Batch of 4 targets.
Target 1
Amino acid sequence: MGLTLAQVAASMTSCGAPVHPELVQGWEQGWNVPSDQHLFALADVLWCDTVTLMGTAPRTLVEFRLARRVGAERLAYRLGMDPSEYRKAESTGQWRGDARQTRALVEILGLSLRGLVGITGRGGELEEHLRSGMAGRWKAHVDPVVEIVAVDPTSVGDALRTMHGEFYRFSERYMGHLVARNDDSRLKEIAAERAAYLRRLPDRFWELVGEDN
């Protein structure tokens, strides 16, 4: 844009985010990182969005919040959560809000429930419960899954029951061919179908609960 460091600093000050030219230079050269307030003001001055300044697509709670130009204190207030508790979620990457707070968070940050589970590192935990539910008593996994995904228990239970039935039919077909002593190629086909189904368990779960976006 042809601006000098002094001009950028002066424009940011006019936007209510006072800063010295030396600090702007520090951001440019990677010596330090702007505060939330400075980042938002800098985006206004340079006529761009915060994601452009961040230089990467959002991958964490912090980055999604910055992309939406929401301060941590303000976001915590909108969630009805203590700011220190929300800050802890950002610093650890572990979200433990209740169902209402979770729904509010994904709406504010422009995420999906599935996206939130992914960026907070609970995708593996969810898949483990889904696999265990297919192999054993699916009802025992309803509450743990609800705690992870913030979807109502009825929807989760219906999804797990459906998936358990689908998976059981693979086993029935396999055992039927095994008892009938059919050729190995057909057994291998069924085994491959079963393995493919297991690989896409999370996809199938989110489809069934209606949160696959």
Note: The chain is about 70% helix and 0% strand.
Target 2
Amino acid sequence: MTAGSVTGARRTRPPWLPLENVIDAVPAGRWWDTIAIDGDLGALTAEKYRAAGRPGPILCDPQGPAPRVYFFVPLGTADRWTEGDSIGLGKCCYVVLNGNLDADPQGVHWITPPRRQHPEPLVRPRLLRTALAEARVSL
């Protein structure tokens, strides 16, 4: 890797992302909210959302009682989220994030890593609802 590519990689990291090689709890409701979906439904929803070429950070935590997928959505989405089989996480909630954008999938890892752009492309709630509905039908 050249020095230029390292510098470019650092520029693409959003300010809320933990440092490389660090896993840390980051507050929701400050930069983004998240929608959490457990188990196979979460994984399939992520697959359907990504297959449509939609941007936005998606994280997987496979280490809980059931694997959980987090979709990073615009602020305020958690307060209005009413979809069953999912949980909106906003203010007063924390999400454990991995600072490595290419971490081992056995631990907390990014399915779709965040990118530093202005405005940052987050998961679009309306399109997430569509992907969740499609995933429900497929299971």
Note: Strands lie at 23-27, 33-38, 58-61, 68-73, 87-89, 94-98, 109-112.
Target 3
Amino acid sequence: MALLAKYGLRLLFSLLIFLIGKWVVGRICLILQRVIIRAKVDKLIASFIINAAKTILLIIVIIAALANLGIETTSFIAMFGAIGLGIGMTFKDSFSNVGAGILILFFRPFKIGDSVEIGGSSGVVSELNLFNMCIATSDGKSIIIPNKQVINSKIINFSITPTRRIDLSFSVDYKDDLKLAKELILNLAIKNELILKDPIPSVSVSALGEHSVDLVAKFWVLNENYTSAQYSMLESVKIAFDESGISIPYPKIITHHIYEKRDDNEQ
């Protein structure tokens, strides 16, 4: 009974150490976050530091709680190191994400808030931690990409420069007025408030297709106006083509019917 009371109290105190320690870690991380914000540290570095500090402090709290149960701290650390080595060999790909995260932090190919495309996923960088990064998409999804995959993928950062070029393709029928079609597209681009006037928008013939003459319109916009300008131009060009009698060709299937004349003498 005395033994149960002794170890029961230890277990209770260890639980209290863990819960209080976890609360303290949360408060420390909150203070650290405020200090980093006041110091105007880059958000990417801040995200990494806070996540790393939280992980390390929680490990210390767990060690303290287990030490209170009577486990020798030195032997526990040695045991933890041995277990960690075994886990590291088993999950070496996961822990390589930590090294990849440090490389991302060092080379800084992007920062929090940048619009990027990584491994075919597009969105805004929202977080970087020890093992992965998060991208927030325009439709409200959160894409989590392991740091190792980020390092090994092609990274396209649309936010490094303030402007971005839009290339739109249009097709017109051979029988339609090509010069009029080019003028309509160019005038719409010049009148569009979202499209920059320097560099000057351009419209050129890109190909003579099998069923149509293909045009490409190129114009520059601010990064934040990319999608809006693209959608507005597509809609306005379609309306202008309809009003001017310019048709947009589409694939047509032509079927040929062969009629065989039947001899009336055949039965």
Note: Residues 32 and 38 are 10 Å apart (CA to CA).
Target 4
Amino acid sequence: MSMNNEISTIMSTGKMSTLIKKTLKQKLAVLVPEWDGRVLDVPASGEVLAGPCAVVAFAEEVPKSAWAGYRRIIKISPYARPEDGGAEQVEAWSALLINGLHQVRLVDEAGVAFTCIYLGSSDSDRVDAGSGMITRSLRFGVYIPEDSDPSLTETGDGWLAALQNWTQQEIGSDWSVYGDVWPGGYDTPSVLWRLAGCSTSVAGTSALEVRQQWIGHVLTDHSVLTRQTVTRLVEQLAVQSRLAITETGGEEYEGKTRYVTVDEVTADLQADAYLNGQIRLTLQHRIRRPGTNVPFIREIHHSKGME
């Protein structure tokens, strides 16, 4: 990377961090009206905080995620006066912040979407020496997808296309269905499918069994809708048993339809929707082994019988 590119990256990251913090401050002011808009940066040395308020501070950066994008840790610390309830008030405000930010999609003034994930409290309740107020630091991961080159994301993967098409038909046009990574302008409700792994094994003298493991992320603004959609997709994939793929390359298969079989599908309803995904899906398909002359006379759908 050239020096100019490095400077540009630093400047864009700094601008992004400023917008993220501004957006979070606005959100916090709405979540806790008792602060009367007092959502502050880290106070300067010797500065004494006044009244109930909150402090927002950036902590460590963490490596980028291949599908979630840029990640940054941010600390949010509510401050309560002893006469206003002290530790009990901090506990109540912390619950409001967790409920109002965890797995919530926010959009800054530049139109960039990002998601907050609650990571826990970094320390115990403590008394602020200057103000005498009680405080606690809550850690959130902030995840910002990066805009990617469309030519890199459009891989032509027939398995992914089949999975996306089936999902779109199943849940309707009101949903967005993404592949590989969360895009920079991701929306909700949405589903992301990404490839987690693949393997092959010999299946007889003339065939190979190809297996792919996929992870599905179901992201909505409502926990009940999220749970219902995850359950519905898992059930319908099991009922569907196979997905149709229309070939787009190779003279032998051009324009023909083949099928991949749903081998196993499970869901973890407690999993983080944005970062980890709730659905685990294994698809499989048998192909002719290279270099064999034995006619491959039929599609075999493992454990499903002949169609």
Note: The mean pLDDT is 83.
